[in-house]
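2024-03-11 09:14:02 DEBUG pipeline.ingest accepted 1 chain
2024-03-11 09:14:02 DEBUG pipeline.ingest length=313
2024-03-11 09:14:03 DEBUG pipeline.predict start
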Amino acid sequence: MKPGNDTHISEFFLLGFSEGLELQPLIFGLFLSMYLITVFGNLLILLAVSSDSHLHTPMYFFLANLSFVDICFTSTSVPKMLVNIQTQNKVITYAGCITQMYFFLLFAGLDNFLLSVMAYDRFVAICHPLHYTIIMKPIFCGLLVLVSWMVSTLNSLLQTLMMLWLSFCTEVEIPHFFCEINQVVQLACSDTFLNDMVMHFAAGLLGGASLAGILYSYSKIVSSIRGISSAQGKYKAFSTCASHLSVVSLFYCTVLGVYLSSAATQSSRSSATASVMYTVVTPMLNPFIYSLRNKDIKRALKRIVVCRLPTAF
């Protein structure tokens, strides 16, 4: 493949999980199942929160937003992958690749920000319980979500617009199952120094700031819980943030694992396999973590099932 200065390239080829035709039906079935479980599970969380007035609190407001973002996050990559496997056509248009990249960055950023906002909510609830209703007013909660959308939108817009400046070689092949920005930048024929700088700066600043906020919130939460005298009080305080802590650990551990493994092996196939963890597996497990560990969610889901059963017969 000879490098060119073709800025009008019309399509890319997504080669992720394309090896072995005999495995394609198995991969298709596996990803379709995970995608349907992700959408159905997160829709149940949205339905439970919206239908139960007892769940109209800041914590569940943020959880509902996280469930919506998880559905969108998975939907940016998995449906296109399923279509490609089913049709045996690995092509994605240039415009489709840039669009997929934009929405992937948008919802990945929102996942990151919402987890930090939820950590702040737990910090206020446990460390300042008497001022919780004063601080976490509906307007303030809405503002936190709005700011998360704005910052994530600006970040994804900036990085995708910078992709338009790059020129690509002909017959570009992306060794991934979606247009992952780092993989696409590496295939450019023009200078990518500025793109690399912005990409790493945004990941360090936005991801690092959110993670630092989460760590600070939980350090204060742990200090407050240790100050509670009774064991029952400690358990009750910890149980209110156990689900969120599990989701945070799962999200950041998988993301860090992906980038550490890709940096260590330099294998595109292993990087694509590892990316499945935070693009598909994590959004799929989030509803299970919150529903299994949360009595309020389980109660709301039971009410939905009980109310639907009489109408079904």
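2024-03-11 09:14:41 DEBUG pipeline.report The longest helix spans residues 231-265.
2024-03-11 09:14:41 DEBUG pipeline.predict end
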